[in-house]
């Protein structure tokens, strides 16, 4: 053992608290933020299980428990962003974990700004979903660089081998270099230089010099790391300051809220009845009929009056499609990232990628829409799509391994819709209004010979 090895000190390293990894299957077990009360299982060889089932059924029939939360979740409508904001942290976690509703205003999808801020300040050791995605992209980029570097080294090694064989034999046998120059008419160095120009040369880490050991006259040994080692350690790890060594006294205020689309908000307010939406200026509760008309008005730009709303406004088409797939058990998320209206997940975005991409299109099959020439031209203009557009969208979905679904919403004539009013106290049967529409699905798939051949 040398003096240098014996003098290496053991510096204490303070590890950050790392919470256990969450169980996603248990965390997102409920498809909706509702509580269900199933009957106990039936055990054939146990007669007491029949009594247990009968008692539970009679008890729930006499005093049925509520499946809704004790207090409805509170939110407010933002006319500037045309969305609904939820600020209560417990409501945010409930809506995201049970159904994946909305997105964080400062995050890609899941509201994780507070965790990222704690990790940035050194108070949390777990990685967030955004950091995992960024690390995966960096690893993929590094892999491509290494692959290109190995290809360039293989070409250079092949050229050196051919040069050595030519010098040793002394014959004018045609080599791969000569064949390349004869076919392409250019030097083979240009190929290596072109590949080398695409590679970003990263400076290698300088070697760490050995530590300096000073022996005292009394036999004691002092350990002094070199200046280069101190500089490298300083650049590689953050300086342990008081901020990241000890937690701050003041708690971090969560500056993120949950942002819901009008279709998601109306499904929670009307379809499930667990969300109350208020006016931000007056804090007044907006009734369901008023909320229905409000979302329809804000689906146009500029805003329209209630009397000028049409049966094919964008909010109606998108909400009918959203309600249709939610009732079938799909997790529906906005699909603007892939140039579509909705994305359909089997369980949720934390489990797998979306399987289907949905585009909503109006269909005017009723005779009313062909009653006049002007009305026929207007409806054809709204529903007409070109083949170029269809192939472009389908190509995008095939590149990300998604199936394109065209959803045609059959638009009824205005006479088939129940009358509605802009007053808050005016009665309105929204269910009867939505039943007048029909939904048809058409799935498209791009046929690729290389993937579909036997």
From TrEMBL:
State any single GO MF term.
tRNA-intron lyase activity
- Superkingdom classification of source: Eukaryota
Judged by the first EC level, this protein's enzyme class is lyase
Q: Does the keyword Kinase apply?
A: no
Entry-linked PANTHER family: TRNA-SPLICING ENDONUCLEASE SUBUNIT SEN2
Query: Compositional bias (Basic and acidic residues) at which positions?
Result: 148-165
Q: Give GO terms for biological process.
A: tRNA-type intron splice site recognition and cleavage
Catalytic residues (UniProt):
345, 353, 402
| Name by which UniProt lists this protein | tRNA-splicing endonuclease subunit Sen2
Q: Which organism is it from?
A: Lepraria neglecta
* UniProt biased composition (Basic residues): 137-147
Q: Which SUPFAM superfamilies match?
A: tRNA-intron endonuclease catalytic domain-like
Documented EC number(s) = 4.6.1.16
Which segments carry the region annotation Disordered? 1-23, 126-185
Question: What sequence ranges are listed for the domain tRNA intron endonuclease catalytic?
Answer: 315-409
The record's function comment reads: Constitutes one of the two catalytic subunit of the tRNA-splicing endonuclease complex, a complex responsible for identification and cleavage of the splice sites in pre-tRNA. It cleaves pre-tRNA at the 5'- and 3'-splice sites to release the intron. The products are an intron and two tRNA half-molecules bearing 2',3'-cyclic phosphate and 5'-OH termini. There are no conserved sequences at the splice sites, but the intron is invariably located at the same site in the gene, placing the splice sites an invariant distance from the constant structural features of the tRNA body.
Family of the protein in this entry: Belongs to the tRNA-intron endonuclease family.
What keywords appear on the UniProt entry?
A: Lyase, tRNA processing
- Pfam families from the entry? tRNA_int_endo
Q: Which residues form a coiled coil?
A: none
Entry's Gene Ontology cellular component terms: cytoplasm; tRNA-intron endonuclease complex
